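Both lines are given unchanged directly below:

***
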Amino acid sequence: MTHLKDFFLLDPNVIFLNHGSFGATPKPVFESYQRWQLELERQPVEFLGRRHNGLMRASRAALAEFVGTSENNVVYVTNVTVGLNIVARSLELGPGDEVLSTDHEYGALDRTWRFLATEKGFANIKSQISLPLPAPEEFVEHFWKSVTPHTRVIFISQISSPTAIIFPVAEICARARREGIITVIDGAHVPGQIPLALDLLGADFWSGNLHKWLMSPKGSGFLYARPEVQHLLNPLVVSWGYEAEIPGPSHFIDYHEWMGTRDPAAFLAVPDAIQFQKEHAWDVVQEDCFTLAEYAQGIICGLTNLPALHKPGAQTFRQVVAMSLPVNTDVIALKTRLYDEYHIEVPVHVWNGHKLIRVSVQGYNTRDDIDALYAALKALLPQTIC
């Protein structure tokens, strides 16, 4: 995998083990992004006024094929937070209703649901998921114990951000459909990390980031909605797509694709990101990354003498893995010193009282990067105990 480093613009003096936060874009994809920006600037009125819809349709078609759905079921948004705000703010919820999620959700979306619960009066319920994660069937049964006759919406991550755990969302979506419960899935870390077939997954609403594991430019994400539920969504920003003079393929596209003047270059470069991965046998790269992530988990858990967050053999993670740190670790000091003294970019944080380090492995990483992290932790952990 070492040769893949040459395709990235990352600072060679930094050991970058935090791809999961904002991604990193390969040079050819970044060059495509800049070409689109330059083309826009050469004739902005032609680009945005006459070519925009056709260009976006072609890009959506490539994206839809990659994620396993129709081009009319996906619309580009800048990130998952925007995509799921569209959904959360559209659903008609009120007193007596419940939204059920887990305690592993991403902070921005946690805040979204709490804000709306306060504003609209519904109950925001969290199922407490203990670690190590139960087997998938045990997880579903445990989670379902929190479902009540008042549960209107289930909101859950397919891959959790703080704990990097893959949840069995297909089983939850199927069960929810039978019960008439709407499913809203946070797929921020999914595209480009694990296979995705949205029509088969069965979620009502699903949003993913493309600037993370697909490695598209920053500001590229998308929202998926099943055709049967697209009518439930209102525009987050009312613009020209609402009451469009020349309607597009659906209100879903009309309402959400055009939010006013913005640079669509990141969206238009998505097909190039998909092509980059095809040209570089990314399924093989992903397996190599998983092997490195397993290696990282093994040596760091061995260093701390703390159990993994996953049951042995469960394979509930892929290219990003979180591991426990001693409970009395000063996480701020550790993170700061890892970067300042060892030039290692890696998240160290507190989640539900657990001190965690989250390691992301992408095609530009090597075993040397993991060994450097291990050596730094071996030196710093004894010095950062409170």
Notes: Residues 30-276 form a domain with the Aspartate Aminotransferase; domain 2 fold (CATH 3.40.640.10). The mean pLDDT is 96. The first strand starts at residue 15 and ends at 16. Residues 44-67 form the longest helix (24 residues).
